[in-house]
Design a protein that fits this description.
single chain, 372 residues, alpha/beta, seven-stranded mixed beta sheet, three-stranded parallel beta sheet, 17% strand, binds beta-D-glucopyranose
């Protein structure tokens, strides 16, 4: 995506971005397309998700995906689901099982995007299309669906500068807590953030966090505090909310009460609560229904041979280290701060105000007119 498009994308409000292709008359009906008859609604779609330490996968991606496959197949389609719990070898085995277990298509969010390429090739040889989900797997994938991940990093970086309110220069020390080196998204988040931060603040310490685990982020933050000094850290760039939680714990362990601005991503419930309470500066809300539902549509369309529908769902294209011009869909994202909790996660039905505004957060919620 061009940077101009990114900037347009960022201004799009978070709610109801679903593109109604059917309403535009783009989609064929169930009966159209030659191969639609070949595979009807009795299909099996595999879904491989990477981990559980961050809450999005089990809380949103999986249930939303499953529901959509059911809706698209009149409750006849089956979803085979496996979560690799951050273990690339385990995911290889799960992929293998799905190939052997008769999946008609596989939607794959890779633990290790490079290592999984051989498994992807194996599925391809078995005639099973693979759609890379969220993380761009290497190997012969049929399509990719994700958010605009460089934009995610830019949004985080820009928000951090905004939170610093004009403070800049070499005395403005920042710690960067990046994601897992086996996840290509982590590289893109970092790249987007650095495009905003470089030359404006001093990156005093930067870590790549093994397996994206909050406890690893906490341990790295402890090291950063020891090296820099807690009171000399102006802000922390954390690539996601789970790690932001670990970062904040480490700061609190070190006795910090007036927390520096900390970024995040995913709109995890605990992070939204921290944002409301002023403990975390921002998150990035990535509309999960759009990603998971459109992935389900892509998989079902591919299996049912609805090529027009499939093409309409994949109008972008991306390159992976192994393949060029992969049909893709990149969903826009929104910066989530105190100001727009109601207009994003609540408006999209991700959380009820009452989920966020538990007793502990009642006063903070009232202050921003978020009432349960
Ligand atoms: C996803 C993030 C997630 C992270 C850790 C990334 O690939 O895009 O939403 O927080 O992985 O699972």
């Amino acid at each position: 995506m061009s940077s101009r498009m990114r900037r347009i994308a960022i201004s799009v409000a978070g709610s109801t971005l679903t593109l109604s292709l059917a309403a535009c008359g783009v989609l064929g009906g169930a009966e159209s397309g030659d191969e639609a008859q070949v595979k009807g609604n009795d299909i099996t779609v595999g879904l491989l998700l990477p981990e559980k330490a961050n809450t999005r996968y089990e809380q949103f991606d999986y249930p939303i995906f499953k529901k959509k496959v059911a809706a698209l197949t009149r409750d006849r389609g089956r979803v085979l689901y496996a979560n690799a719990e951050a273990d690339a070898k385990k995911q290889e085995g799960q992929l293998e099982e799905m190939i052997e277990g008769g999946a008609d298509a596989i939607v794959l969010d890779a633990v290790d995007a490079h290592a999984v390429a051989e498994g992807v090739a194996k599925a391809k040889r078995a005639g099973i299309p693979v759609i890379a989900y969220d993380r761009l797997a290497e190997g012969p994938i049929d399509a990719y669906i994700s958010f605009d991940n460089e934009l995610v990093g830019e949004v985080q970086g820009r928000s951090l500068l905004e939170a610093l309110g004009g403070r800049s220069g070499s005395a403005t020390r920042i710690v960067m807590m990046n994601g897992s080196p086996t996840d290509p998204n982590a590289r893109q988040f970092k790249k987007g953030a650095l495009a905003e931060l470089t030359g404006k603040v001093r990156i005093a310490k930067s870590y790549d966090t093994k397996d994206w685990k909050p406890e690893n982020a906490r341990a790295n933050m402890k090291k950063a505090i020891n090296a820099i000094g807690a009171d000399r850290i102006a802000a922390v760039y954390s690539a996601n909310d789970g790690m932001a939680g670990g970062v904040i714990e480490a700061l609190e362990d070190a006795g910090v009460t007036d927390l520096p601005p900390v970024t995040g991503q995913d709109a995890e419930l605990s992070a939204v609560q921290r944002i409301v309470a002023g403990e975390q500066y921002m998150s990035v809300y990535k509309p999960y229904p759009q990603e998971a539902e459109n992935a389900a549509e892509m998989a079902v369309a591919r299996v049912q041979g609805k090529d027009i529908q499939f093409d309409a769902l994949t109008r972008d294209n991306v390159d992976s280290p192994t393949h060029k011009n992969i049909p893709a869909q990149l969903v826009p994202v929104v910066a989530l701060t105190k100001e727009n909790v109601a207009d994003t996660v609540v408006a999209d039905g991700i959380y009820e105000a009452s989920d966020i505004c538990t007793a502990k957060y009642e006063t903070a919620c009232a202050a921003i007119d978020l009432e349960s």
